[in-house]
Design goal:
globular; single chain; alpha+beta; 22% helix; three-stranded antiparallel β-sheet; five-stranded antiparallel β-sheet; 140 residues
Length: 140
């Protein structure tokens, strides 16, 4: 994606405002001095509107209201329940912007390729949570 929320240790503000929005296409800051979660969400919204070269066509951007629960494949052995908030089409396919519900509930989220996302029904969410709780209680 074109814009990312990024740590900005060079910015002269208080510790809670050490993040900014980095523009990958222009290799410069688009905004600085933001709280981490706000920088990430604003960067995602900018990436939804702008592709690498120009404004993204409306057919290539989707904001979801209400959000959708999905199973996010983080690695071959790890999946999580997340909220899918928006879709954006890049040259290699569709990407969904998800926020974590378990591992990083206060983070702004991240973009994930559509192949890593699977829609969940309400029953699936409850089953997923029970399985995760059972796995965590088995650990020493």
């Amino acid at each position: 994606m074109r814009f990312i929320g990024r740590y900005d240790g060079d910015h002269q503000r208080s510790a809670s405002y050490l993040y900014g929005i980095w523009d990958n296409a222009r290799s410069e800051w688009a905004a600085r001095g933001l709280p981490g979660p706000e920088a990430g969400l604003q960067a995602a919204m900018l990436s939804l509107r702008y592709s690498r070269l120009a404004e993204r066509p409306d057919r290539d951007a989707r904001w979801l209201a209400p959000t959708v629960h999905v199973e996010l494949t983080v690695s071959p052995t790890l999946t999580e329940v997340a909220l899918l908030r928006m879709w954006a089409r890049e040259t290699d396919g569709w990407y969904g912007y998800v926020t974590y519900l378990e591992r990083h509930p206060l983070s702004s989220g991240r973009w994930a390729h559509a192949s890593a996302l699977k829609p969940l029904l309400v029953d699936d969410i409850e089953t997923f949570s029970r399985q995760r709780t059972a796995r965590q209680s088995d650990r020493p």
